[in-house]
Amino acid sequence: MASLSADLFYDILKRLDAAALARAGCACADFRAISNDEDLWENACTSLWPSTRRDDVRSLIVSVGGFRKFYADCFTLILNKDVPVVQTNETNPFAEEWAESDYYYDDMDELENSLPSDFVSLIDVWYKDHALYSKVIWGIPNSDGANGWFYNCPFRVDLFHHSAENNENNNGEVFLSTISDLPSVPSMEQERKDGKLWRELNDGIKLSWIIVNRKMKRAVNLTSWHPLGGQRHWPTDTDFVLRFGSVLPAKEVLPCQVAECILLMKFRMISMGSEESGESSTLALTELSMQIEDMGGVHLNGRCSLLLLKEALSCHRSRNYDEVLESCNLYLKAQSELKEEKIRSEYRFDTLCIVSGITIFGAICTMCYRRFENF
Asked: Do 134 and 196 reside in the same domain of the chain?
């Protein structure tokens, strides 16, 4: 090793992916010195995230700490195991409706540190390791001043409606076909029986949605890489909906202390395949959006969402995908238990109302009967 030149070391390390590059840096002092080279980490980032190849994004990453820091922040996923336990009793605070005022910070300094213009989104979509779509969003679309509608209306970022002209390569249109190893679908009836297309789509699609805060000089990946769930043929027979996301900490923002960042991706079948004619089945990506909901399924507004995105930049993360997936399932389980407890509470309330109504009616009838007896 001592006889090898630094240029040869560099040539070896530049052929590695980021994970192998990080491990190589722990092997010896020479590898460690060379593995800190920013060009190596830039190559690793641009290979993984096509959106980082743009010159303006490169300048952004350099300004927030460089490619090595960017990779460390964004390759790891959000891990949040602090999901409140839903108590199945009548005094359960999570089963009650929360007032709108309970969700908000009144501290204007916090709002000033979470301006929509501070955030940059880097979005990349792959299918079976083939890059399908990349987009960069500077700021949050359609946001305005602190007293405007954005802060009080439901928060949502939709990539296919606000600024399609920013996507120079795709022009807002993304297609999947048998050319991209998509299985042929002769009919939707056949797809309902075997679900082959759904399985291939669910297993093959991968999403990265990174937000960078220029003021805080930090970044975080909001996605789960692979779908957490989804539904085929909804809301029409030709739609396939995939759901990605992460569980965000919200101890200082929401009564439930956690929230879910939901990333929805929808494909629509625009042509059926036919082996006889040689035509390919084709799917079009028609929706890719982000929104944030609390445990009760309430769609949070812009003010709360900005605060949660700010909190996400400094939350705990993990490289262990199974551990991240387990935390997401823990949240979904708690959310399901909360919904069931709300249903039970409503049932108890309805039963109480019915019993009270019958009791009151019986009391009135008894009073009337006694009056008639007196006459």
From this structure: yes
